[in-house]
Design goal:
44% strand; 3 helices; Cathepsin D, subunit A, domain 1; 7-stranded mixed sheet; single chain; 160 residues
Length: 160
Amino acid sequence: MNEFPRTLKIVTVWLLILLAVWLGVKWFQNRQQLSRFDHTGDEIVLRRAADGHFHWPGQVNGIPVDFLVDTGATTTALPASLAARAGLPRGALLQSMTAGGTVQGHESRAELQLRGGVSVQRLRVAVLPQLEAPLLGMDVLSRLHFTQGNGVLRLRATPP
């Protein structure tokens, strides 16, 4: 065996190029996500993402998540797959009114940690099987003072 066949060399070069492109895209996406969040002093600043929504990184029972901030949601809602990974207990059945209509799910309790130091213990959440992304509802947001303008959402702890 003197050398790799020419076809194998070409395939290897293309695989390396594709790997480099994929790593570059992942790096760019990570930089975009980091630039959407800022925490200075007692103010948390979220910038609107390319999808038109505000996202707030956090954790549910220690599992990393990217919450979609939903001021139209009364209750924080989690996908069933996330609830299972986080080991959330299954509570009473519930019906939830969503933009897509009425859906069936169940209640649970979760520990939420949001970047910037916001945490909520034993929060009642709705677990919905068809939900694609975790929604941060007014049950958490109403505990904060927030303003929105020019693609920026500013949040502060509500004074006692």
